[in-house]
C-alpha cells in the first residue's frame, strides 16, 4: 500500500464584500452577481488561472428564488470562470460557509483537491429569511415534534432561553452589544478591514455610481441608553432585543484554499494552515449552544488550549450566545471578536462563516498572532469550529 505524504490545506487569500443593511446599499445586487463579483475579485487579486480551480463550494441558507438552482455554479459562471469549473451549494444554516470551508480544506487534505474556493452569499433583502421553509408542509415532522414535546421554537426565543439559563441580565447583553459596535467602529476608522473588503459599485439616487466599501450596519453613535430603550423582540418579558441581536444583512465572501506545496509551486505564500475541525450537536430547543462543545472538541483534536488561541471569532447571532459560551469556556473577551461581530457588522447568513475566516486571518496577520479559533452556532442545535495557524 502506498502511504501518501501528509498534505497541508492552506489559505492563499480571503476577501469579502462590505456588509449591507437590509434594503441598504446592496439591495439592487442579485446574489449570484454579488458572489460572482467576489469570485472575480479573488482571481484578480491572486492572478490565478481560474481553469485550475477544481471546485467552488458555497454556503447559502435560503436556497430559493434568486439563490436557488445551485448559486455556487451560477456565480462561478457569472464571474467568468471557465465552464469546466464546477460548483456546489451547502446548507448548514448560519454555519453554511464555514462548512464550505471545512469541506474544501478537508478535500485538499484528503487529496481530492489541490485548488478550491470556498465561500458564501446571502441577500436577506431579496430572499428573506425563512423563504426556504415556505410552501406546503412543515420542516419538522410528527416524530421530531413528539421527541421535543412540541416545544421547538424560533431561534430568538432560544436566545432568550439561553439568557435565562445562564442568568445573563439585559444590562450584560446590551453592554456586550455596545462593545461590539465600538470595536467595529474603531476597526473601520483605523482601516483594519480595508485590505479584506472588495468594494462594490452601487447605483445612487441621482443616477451616478459609487463604490460601497464600508460595513453599513455599524452604529458608532449608539449608547447603553439607546440600547436599553429597545423593546424585547421575541418574548414580552424577554431580554433579547434588536440591539443585542445580529443584523439582517446582505453580503458575500470567499476563501482561496490550496495544498501547501501546490501553492508554493505556483508562487504563492501560504498565509495560514488549517489545524483542526470539529462539529457538534446540542439541544435544538436551546439551538445556539453547540459552540460550547464544538470548541472543546476542536481544542482536544488539536491538542491545544484556549489560552494558546491568540484570537477567537464566534458568531454574534445574539449576545447571549457569546456570553454563555464565554461563561462555559472561561475565554477572555479581550481576544474574542476583537473587531466587533455580527451585532455591529451584520449577519448575511450563508456568507458569515467565510466572513469570520477573512476577519480572523487578516487580524492574525496584523497582530502577528499564531493560532485563531473560529466557531459558529447553527439552526437545529449545531455548530462548526476550526483552528487555523498563521504562516506568514
UniProtKB/TrEMBL annotation:
EC number(s) reported in the record: 2.3.1.16
GO molecular function, one term: acetyl-CoA C-acyltransferase activity
Active site per database record: 94 (acyl-thioester intermediate), 347 (proton acceptor), 377 (proton acceptor)
The organism's place on the tree of life at top rank: Bacteria
Pfam families linked: Thiolase_C, Thiolase_N
UniProt entry keywords in alphabetical sequence: Acyltransferase, Transferase
Transmembrane segments: none
Residues covered by the Thiolase C-terminal domain: 269-390
Residue ranges of every copy of the Thiolase N-terminal domain listed in the record: 10-261
Keyword Acyltransferase: yes
Family: Belongs to the thiolase-like superfamily. Thiolase family.
Name the UniProt record assigns to this protein: Acetyl-CoA acetyltransferase
